[in-house]
Amino acid sequence: xxxxxxxxxxxxxxxxxxxxxxxxxxxxxxxxxxxxxxxxxxxxxxxxxxxxxxxxxxxxxxxxxxxxxxxxxxxxxxxxxxxxxxxxxxxxxxxxxxxxxxxxxxxxxxxxxxxxxxxxxxxxxxxxxxxxxxxxxxxxxxxxxxxxxxxxxxxxxxxxxxxxxxxxxxxxxxxxxxxxxxxxxxxxxxxxxxxxxxxxxxxxxxxxxxxxxxxxxxx
Length: 219
Known about the structure:
Elements: E1 14-18, H1 26-34, E2 38-42, E3 61-66, E4 88-92, H2 97-105, E5 108-113, H3 121-164, H4 170-183, H5 188-196, H6 214-217
Parallel strand pairs: 1-2, 1-3, 3-4, 4-5
């Protein structure tokens, strides 16, 4: 996957302010507008649960959540928290552990003290967005690693199929599978899963005359 790039320009982003006390965030709204963000207000205490969490975009939306909201509408039962669809910046008034914990549970990656001072907004935005993207990047890499680790069993089975049929030794079998996966622009694990399932075959020239599809059929 491509390397992570830091975001420094937030023009075109959308900020969603989830608070019932707009007086505390007047400077925040003005500062966000100067930085090129559009601003929308969300008042959960009035039954306003928009924006829909599933519709948020990680590369365009930022959610500012007031930690003084009770109950916290987006709090998760897991104290460590899981990432939402977009970066979360917590607005902190009362620094009670329970309220900070609630912000962490929705994945807050930066905080702003209320009342908000304009000079602190860019730093919080920079930290909140880029830390979110860093965590998301690591999460995707971990998922990919787990997927490939799970797929390694198909690589082993594919090598065993080729060696069992007497077509080649283990080193040549592995190299042949790797080369064929590259030709088809598939990961080695995905290609071997297809091969073992009968959806791909090794050319007969590679297997010393073994008919195409024989390896998969003989599993």
